Amino acid sequence: MTRWLPVLALGLCVLAVDAGAAETRPEPVIYAAPDCTSDSGGAGSDYAAQFAAAVQRCWVLDPADRAARVSLTLGFALTPDGRVKPDSLTLRHASGGDPGAIRRAFGAARRAVLRCQGSSGYPLPRERYAEWRRVELCFSPAKPAK
Amino acid sequence: MKAFLASLSLALGLAFLPAAVQAQEPLRIEITEGVVEPMPYAVPSFVAETPEAQQYADQISRVVADDLTGTGLFREIPREAHIAQVTSFGAPVQFADWKAINAQALITGSVSADGAGRVVVKFRAWDVFAGQELGQGMQFAAPAEGWRRLAHKVADQVYSRLTGEDPYFDSRVAFVSETGPKGERVKRLAIMDYDGANIQYLTDGGAIVLAPRFSPSGDRVLYTSYQTGFPRIHVLSVGDVQSRILQAGDGQMSFAPRFSPDGRMVVYSLSQGSNTDIYAMDVASGATRRLTSTPAIETAPSFSPDGSQIVFESDRSGTQQLYIMPAMGGEARRISFGQGRYGTPVWSPRGDMIAFTKQNAGRFHIGVMRTDGSEERLLTASFLDEGPTWAPNGRVIMFARETQGAQGASALYSVDISGRNLQRVRTPAGASDPSWGPLQ
After folding, report:
1. H/E element, B193
2. B89 near B47, Cβ under 8 Å?
3. Is the pLDDT of residue A7 over 80?
4. Which parts of the sequence belong to the TolB N-terminal domain (chain B) (predicted)?
């Protein structure tokens, strides 16, 4: 269905383009999960810090956006060669913003995880795959962004 | 409650899980610092669907890119770096090719012209790394001379989808155009697109004009003119460029006008003798009401977006400071307490902040503060910065900057409320006193 909205000044009109079979973007589903507790002092501490640093380089914040104040936990699965399984990305927890801000924060976190794996995946120790095959990344914009 | 029950269920569930399964807990990592950098995006030249559309296709996609990049929030990936070529609007997007050049967002579009002077532009926006469309595709149509507005409309949609903010590209700015040497400036009232294009002059320069202010609907502009020898407030209809003087008594100087959010009232300053107070006038009836009554100079009133309060400047404390009072007048509370002098306050369209001019230690600044005076931040500093005005979405501030010396000239600049992305607005001559109008 098309819908025309006249704008008087220029006779400007708008209608939705038939998107055909294009995918529609699902709203992030928020699960009640506990806040993320880092394993930086646990078994994965040797490579977890490198993993965090790699994702951090791609986590882009807009300090004037309310999304920059949202804390969220992103859950996902990795293949043995360190690649993210795209369909596994889920929002596990979010707080500190309205639904719009959470949606933008989720998008920024998801892009960070997908972008920074590059073409070869994250450099993680294959022999310890059982430890990192599933990951929960907690994005807490507590400190001022650089 | 739902969250609590879900947490409880999760906790109970985990308690009864076999030890082998519990051992497969996910690796948990916390990240506390991100980076602040523009998001890379790509806008291939829009596809011309008809021969007549060729001249518009590249121009429209160029303006879309200029709008987005101009915010400082996005960085365009040059077209020379594109791997994929978009030759058909309906063709599947080659996400791998756009990922390879690190484009996080992609805007595709097409333009057609119907031969009767009408241009139609379609666009779609894509989240490249998610491999998904951002919102729904849309199309806009307008007479050919309105092609820049079409481009701004597309950019507005993309901006909102990527940032979640309300848009502001399809808006206009009223300002004072300045030509001639410093001592003999010719000042004309003018209107332009927010990016400096499509300038339209509304007065002929025969009289000095000051401080234009758009009405909330953008159909009228208030300004102060010395046409009669005294400063008097005029209201000009943008549609037919007709103006009239708002009522004022003989020997009275009226200036610094601003509309109420519903456009029915005007608040302004009135000088009688050595005293200046703030008044409100019903535009339709001309009935006036005095809102302040002190021996101090009170001026530059600006309504809150809900129309319930007015912020203004006053030297009642001995120095020029900012105050807020009820819209009908009454007790005012001071909100500025820093060093220096504060003036020209303007309430944010979002209602949460006030922009102002500050003079301190020989420098001028444009700053913002919360409406209770907290969290003051200075966004600029120069020889002379003054007269802030908010973009319709409350995200960007435009102001006038004058350079020092006999050859000094005034120009318009914009800055993001984060203090980043200071940019000069392109105008063909000097410019001052900007007033950002509503989204069209």
Report:
1. strand B186-193
2. yes
3. no
4. 27-134
The CATH number of whichever domain residue A85 belongs to comes to 3.30.1150.10
Q: Which two tokens stand for residue B322?
A: 């900012």
Q: Which residue out of B27, B36, B152, B421 would a mutagenesis test of the A interface target, given it has the greatest number of A Cβ atoms within 10 Å?
A: B27
> pLDDT of B113-128, one tens digit each?
987 889 999 999 999 9
Q: Tell me the pLDDT band of B13, cut-offs 50, 70 and 90.
A: very low
A7 CB neighbours in chain B (<8 A) are 440
pLDDT(B303) > 90:
yes
* A74: Cα within 13 Å, side-chain hemisphere: 30
Cβ within 8 Å, pair A64-B395: yes
Chain B residues touching residue A82 (CB < 8 angstroms): none
Q: Is B20 in the A-facing interface, judged by CB distances under 8 Å?
A: no
Tell me the residue range of the domain where A49 lies: 45-139
Judge: A32–B132 Cβ closer than 8 Å, yes or no.
no
Q: What does the pLDDT average to over A111-137? A: 90
The C-alpha angle with vertex B102 and arms to B97 and B107, in degrees rounded to 5, equals 70
Residue B315 distance to chain A (closest CA, Å): 32
B352 and A CB contact within 8 Å = no
d(C-alpha B312, C-alpha B320), whole Å:
10
Domain B39-163 has CATH 3.40.50.150: no
Alpha helices in chain A (DSSP H): 45-56, 99-115, 129-132
Q: How big is chain B, counted in residues?
A: 440
**Residue intervals in chain B for CATH 3.40.50.10070:** 39-163
Q: Which of B134, B136, B417 sits opposite A16 (nearest CB)?
A: B136
Q: Do A44 and B27 touch (CB under 8 A)?
A: yes
Task: Quote the mean pLDDT of chain B.
Answer: 91
Q: Residue A84 in contact with residue A114, Cβ under 8 Å?
A: yes
Report the residue of B1, B5, B21, B30 to disrupt the A interface, i.e. the one with the largest count of A CBs within 10 Å: B30
* Interchain proximity A56–B34, CB inside 8 Å: yes
Supply the pLDDT for residue B41.
Answer: 97
Mean pLDDT of A22-31: 40
A143: distance to nearest CA of chain B, Å?
6
Mean pLDDT of B49-66: 95
Between the CA of residue B57 and those of A11, B123, B149, B193, B286, what are the distances in Å? 20, 12, 13, 20, 49
Chain A positions touching B141 (Cβ under 8 A) are 12-14
A57/chain B closest Cα distance in angstroms: 7
How many folded domains does chain A comprise?
1
